[in-house]
Design a protein that fits this description.
six-stranded parallel β-sheet, binds uridine-5'-diphosphate-xylopyranose, 440 residues, Rossmann fold, elongated, alpha/beta, 14 strands, N-(1-d-carboxylethyl)-l-norvaline Dehydrogenase, domain 2
Amino acid sequence: MKVTVIGTGYVGLVSGACLADVGNDVLCLDVDPAKIKILEEGGIPIHEPGLHEIVRRNVEAGRLSFTTDVEKAAKWGVTQFIAVGTPPDEDGSADLKYVIAAARNIGKHMDAYRVIVDKSTVPVGTADKVRAAVAEELAKRGSTTEFSVVSNPEFLKEGAAIEDFMRPDRIVVGAEDPQAIELMRQLYAPFQRNHDRLVFMDVRSAELTKYAANAMLATRISFMNELANLAETLGADIELVRQGIGSDPRIGWHFLYAGCGYGGSCFPKDVKALIRTGSEHGHDLKLLGAVEAANEIQKHVLVDKIVRRFGEDLTGRHFALWGLAFKPNTDDMRDAPSRVIIQELFKRGATVAAYDPVAMQEAERIFGDEPRLSYAGRPKSTLDNADALVIVTEWKEFRSPDFEAIKSRLKQPVMFDGRNMYDPALIRAEGIEYFGIGRG
Ligand code: UDX
């Protein structure tokens, strides 16, 4: 099938490459010529395991190509995926200007039946706005070409996006017209595996499903974080509590890890947007307000511990920091707890030596020419002359660190573990003063 994907960001590129990989002819459109140039030259503007390989393979096979030509893109795919950004407005609602612009371009140039697929995370009711924008453009040129608007939210996790697309738990499709339903069924048939993963529903329910999923996951995390803080005061261990409750299938094991707060491009933005949608429709989503507030507090928990250990004034103190990305396997630092932690340390007069396997370039872009922040080529090199080690992201390479180096190179062996990576008893047995999250 010929497929157009509009937007070569994270979601667009992963979707385009995976759809090409199962045999479709995919054309990816972006209005940013610099991005398209990088892609045409074989580069990938984002860090995602496996993405480079799958893009290269499909470009070489002639199934995946890139363009800035909106007319060509509108005339290419019978399915037109809109996967452009929806940055939050100042009030927290998703800004739809790129989505609507993409819809207008389709309406301006399409010359045959099109299924327009909303892939971007968009508020409930957006499909109606997309439909209206396309219809308006068609009407301007007196066209009666038919089209359908479908909602097909993505559930990709950064760092595991290819796997998530190729082997999905479920594929949610909100579609009401039979022709569109049939096309979506065909398009996703190669991803079905051993049982039906396709969940068809009305468009609004599909739009809400995406927000519901992320809001539920964020709620679990904030719940565990609040409980962790309580456990600490009570002398209980949140890790044991997690094991104790996770075995109940109604609760399950996933997304129960307490830490120094959630970040990334989805949870913070989607929780805010859902609260906003609620208030626009007269519903005060109190629980989600609390989820968000608890997460803001949690991003400060590590610094609170540092202050309790070293005092409010950290002038002259220096900290080793491991992990800048909001989670492992990505260079994404959007809403990353590391940003809050670094700023809070600066505010109190400290300096930081940071290491991250892939996000240091991104940190340089964010922090610019910041003399209080230095970067090291290896985790160990951050330790020299530091007052303590602060772990913010649970990269695999931190799981088994060189404890001798931590003890000998830090000024004194103190560790703040924002991701509960280690067994406190083992670390303490090494002679390291250990502070985890909710570890009794
Ligand atoms: C998330 C959803 O998982 C995905 O389905 C959706 O499409 C986009 O949003 P992502 O933001 O890539 O994906 O990362 P995810 O792995 O879900 O982690 C989000 C944040 O929660 C990270 O900051 C992570 O550190 C934190 N987290 C996750 C916890 O603090 N505890 C947990 O138990 C799990």
